[in-house]
Amino acid sequence: MAGLRTAEALRRFGYTGPITAIGDEPHAPYNRPPLSKEVLAGNEVSHATVAFPQRAATADVCWVLGNAAVAADLEHQTVTCADGSVYEYSSLVIATGLRPKRQTYPNNIQAGRHVIRTLDDAIALRAELQPGKRVVVLGAGFVGCETAATARKLGCEVTIVAPGALPIGRILGPELAGEIMRRQQTECVEFRMKRSVVDLMGEARIEGVMLDDASLLPCDVFIEAIGSNCNTEWLEGNNIDVTDGVLTDHNLRAVRATGGSWDNIYAVGDVAKFPNPIFDDLARRVEHWNIPTESGKHVGQLIALQHSAEETAAAAMAEAETKGFRPVPSFWSDQFDVHLLAFGLLALADEAKLVQGELSGDCVYEYYRAGKLVGAAGIGMRSVVQGYRNAFASQE
Amino acid sequence: MTIKIDVDMAKCQHYGQCVFEAPNIFRLNSDDKLEYTAEADDSELANVEAAIDVCPMQAIFIVD
Question: For residue A3, which residues of chain B lie inside 8 Å, CB to CB?
Answer without folding.
Answer: none
